[in-house]
């Protein structure tokens, strides 16, 4: 088990490191993040597969293939503005859709893709259309929108500014997971929500918040400037005085991502319990399913995006 976990982790870390290097050094101006797309698409579709499989394991209906297509549409929608730079043009500044608007369009398209699939297979004497439609829409939204927003986070600012933001989000989120685990194991006495996750404790949450805040300060102080170089962020100044400094930025980012990551973890635990599953899947030996890796990141991308858009690290 431990050997499988280490082997799988080594493969993931190697692939991530290579793609990060390529993205940081060989990106097309205006299409930053394109190198990371295969990785984000893997986690997006892998998460969708895990959720759809657990929905079916719980005795409910879910059209897994159409959910995967809809998820891909949502995730890829955030890359549409990159088509202009790739073609040697500039994305029009006066485009009424903007850049984030494509994600909304992708989300709406995913709903109607799911509906059209159900229309095609509908039989008046067959039950389950509503169940399949709603489960398909949920899967595509839950697994697609967060990763589309990760692409958008990578695209924030100039050059490698967005890459620094994305790496900071991942580092803070995963450090919160680790801090909560070790603090819970060492000091945990008071259960947080035992009906969902018996191992989670208030002491673990506190440890996760402290760890995330320390890591956020380190990232904003050293990692962020090192990666972004001379690139500018999306805003020239923070919406609140002092938010751009590492100290106050960490005080906001650390606790917020620690709590959000916990919510993502508990959301997966709830679905696991309802489907009587120990892991979300078996695609990653030693780690479980893809959702077991992405659960906290799915929940932290929105608050992280809003924090950076509000001027953290500006």
From TrEMBL:
Q: Which one Pfam family would you cite for this protein?
A: CTP_transf_1
* Protein EC: 2.7.7.41
Q: Which GO terms describe its molecular function?
A: phosphatidate cytidylyltransferase activity
* Primary localisation category: membrane
- Membrane protein topology class: Multi-pass membrane protein
Q: In which pathway does it act?
A: Lipid metabolism; Phospholipid metabolism; CDP-diacylglycerol biosynthesis; CDP-diacylglycerol from sn-glycerol 3-phosphate: step 3/3
The UniProt entry, under PANTHER family, shows: PHOSPHATIDATE CYTIDYLYLTRANSFERASE (PTHR46382)
| Protein's name in the database | Phosphatidate cytidylyltransferase
Query: What is the species listed in this Swiss-Prot or TrEMBL entry?
Result: Rubripirellula obstinata
- Biological classification of the source: Bacteria, Pseudomonadati, Planctomycetota, Planctomycetia, Pirellulales
């Amino acid at each position: 088990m431990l050997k499988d976990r280490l082997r799988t982790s080594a493969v993931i870390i190697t692939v991530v490191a290579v793609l990060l290097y390529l993205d940081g050094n060989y990106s097309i101006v205006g299409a930053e993040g394109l190198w990371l797309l295969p990785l984000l698409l893997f986690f997006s579709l892998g998460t969708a597969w895990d959720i759809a499989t657990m929905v079916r394991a719980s005795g409910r209906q879910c059209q897994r293939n159409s959910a995967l297509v809809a998820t891909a549409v949502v995730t890829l929608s955030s890359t549409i503005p990159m088509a202009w730079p790739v073609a040697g043009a500039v994305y029009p500044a006066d485009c009424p859709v903007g850049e984030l608007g494509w994600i909304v369009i992708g989300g709406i398209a995913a709903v109607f893709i799911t509906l059209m699939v159900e229309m095609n297979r509908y039989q008046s004497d067959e039950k389950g259309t509503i169940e399949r439609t709603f489960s398909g829409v949920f899967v595509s939204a839950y697994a697609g929108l967060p990763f589309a927003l990760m692409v958008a986070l990578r695209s924030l600012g100039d050059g490698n500014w967005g890459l620094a933001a994305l790496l900071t989000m991942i580092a803070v989120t995963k450090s919160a997971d680790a801090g909560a685990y070790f603090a819970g194991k060492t000091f945990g006495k008071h259960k947080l929500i035992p009906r969902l996750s018996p191992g989670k404790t208030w002491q673990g949450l506190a440890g996760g918040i402290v760890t995330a805040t320390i890591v956020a300060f380190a990232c904003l102080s050293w990692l962020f400037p090192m990666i972004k170089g001379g690139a500018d962020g999306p805003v020239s100044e923070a919406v609140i005085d002092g938010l751009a400094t590492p100290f106050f930025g960490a005080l906001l980012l650390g606790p917020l991502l620690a709590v959000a990551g916990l919510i993502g973890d508990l959301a997966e635990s709830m679905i696991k319990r309802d489907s009587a599953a120990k892991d979300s899947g078996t695609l990653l030996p030693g780690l479980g399913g893809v959702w077991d890796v992405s659960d906290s990141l799915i929940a932290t991308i929105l608050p992280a995006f809003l924090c950076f858009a509000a001027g953290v690290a500006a």
